[in-house]
Amino acid sequence: MYEAFITLAFFFAFIGAAFAADRCKAAAEKKRKLMDGEEDEDENAQVVDWTAIEMYRELVKDKQGEKVTNEKDKEKRESMKLYLRQNMKTD
């Protein structure tokens, strides 16, 4: 019976050790990139002004031929289309 408790204890100890090693390696990699002058991927992440469902709903309306009521919505649709063309290589 004691083997079960030892196994369970070692399981959590190894999980903790693996997590700590992963965090340590990530910190070392980030430090190395800073020392080498490389840019961090998170800093270059592109910010999108819309959610996926918002883009879907708006562009489906456009495909169905629904007219835009104001200039702001027209610019929004056009910028969504441009984003898809540039980043997803699709219309």
Structural descriptors:
single chain, mainly alpha, 2 domains, elongated
Give the helices and strands, then pairings.
Elements: H1 2-36, H2 52-63, H3 71-88
Write up this protein.
The chain has about 90 residues and is an all-alpha fold. The chain folds into 2 domains: about 1-45, no CATH class; about 50-90, no CATH class. The protein is built from 3 helices and no strands. The chain has helices spanning about 1-35, 50-65, 70-90. The longest helix has about 35 residues, at about 1-35.
Please tally the β strands and state the result: 0
Low-pLDDT regions: none
The helix/strand series, from N terminus to C terminus, equals HHH
Q: Briefly note the structural class of the backbone.
A: mainly alpha
Total of domains:
2
Strand content: under 5%
How would you sum up the major sheet?
none
- What shape does the CA trace take? elongated
- Average the pLDDT over all residues and give the rounded result: 87
What share of the residues lie within helices? over 70%
Distance between the termini: 63 Å
User: From the alpha-carbon coordinates, what is the Rg to the nearest angstrom?
Assistant: 24 Å
The helix count comes to 3
